[in-house]
Amino acid sequence: MNPQRRALLRAGSLAAALPLTAGAASAAAASALPVLLPAVPAGSTPETLASNQAYWQAVAAQYDTTDAVVQLDNAFWGSMARPVLRHYEQQLTMVNRDNAWYARMRFPADFEAARAAAARALGVGIDEIVLTRGATEALQVLIAGYNRLQPGDAVLYADIDYDNMITVTRWLQQRRGAKVVSIAMPEPFTHDNVIAAYVAAMERHPQLKLMLLTHVNHRNGMVLPVAEISRLARARGIDVIVDTAHGFGQLDMTIPDLQADFAGINLHKWIGAPVGVGAAYIKRGRLADIDPYMGEARGEKAGDDIRTRVHTGTVNFAAYLSLPMALDLHAQIGVANKQARLRLLRNRWVEAARGIDGIEVLASSDSRLTSAIASFRLKGKTSVADNFSLSKKLVQQHGIFAVPRDGLASGACVRVTPGIFTPEAHLDKLVDALRQVARG
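User: That's the sequence. What structure does it adopt?
Assistant: Structure tokens below.
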């Protein structure tokens, strides 16, 4: 048996054992995206393009968006652009029609093509990523599977980390006998005082072996200086697992920029792939430090195959088949251009809201710490109930949908997240609403 045939059979595919038919064309190979957007004007920078209304109207024209409300919760997941949605629907129809014939014959190769496209976009090797159903699954695999902890070793999380990831981190006390410690980020936060908070924690807990770092937190949008903190941790023999669910796709970066060996990634938030697509990154040479999934084994060298760290069962075939097209559109727009546009939209409401008496804005003016996400609350109104009531008032009285978030040490807040298709007028409407809300 030749090596290629053996590898395919190990992966569970019958493609090497059954004859192909003329109609079994690769869905992934057919996903090339035509150029949909106007050329960027000569001499433009991401910062100058950010205010080019004609260009961003052309981008927005690729999306169907609701007119039921002013939609300012674009951090839950990212809408698919119309061509990606059409492709997804076509693949769903094809998979439903061809069923197991496609799933067994062609999908393994198409899935690997999608994985390769994701690896290129992430700036890593294909052997360093495994596709998942989202960042939550990826991070659960990494945190729960991290096997270098001994009883008494310490693990750190912060108040900005995602709720489910905090839960899994706490579980390491039961799973590994680790001591779990937490810190709260300073408010107002600055680049230096955030780094100082992590340094203080490392010095206070010399038994630290693992830290969870959230690249862009889902509560107030702060961009953590992950690379700097990762380097400081490595110098002390501490590993970090990075949650970049909200980082990759909206910030101009690739995974190696994080200076971390482990990361969980979302591809259905800021990339705009169908819901149910993410990835886990394990740096080459570190695979043995993450356990195979529940004893998962594949072939003679299971320990060398990152795919043994995740077992999702039957997946949404069409979602993965549409990932290359979503990545193509992301590349056409350009991540630096996305970041600049999202920052302009965020700053449009944030800077105006800072001048409203009675409104507390949870956001930094330091561009190093800013993302599309930012939050606010009424001054002194920090309870969950206060902020659910505020969110409800914005919807009922002003037609604006922004969501309450809790978990910060300083209290709850309301999160605002524009998308690249959000018109500037929607942020102006939010500011007008905040003026009225603040007056009571």
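Confidence is low (pLDDT under 50) at residues 1-25.
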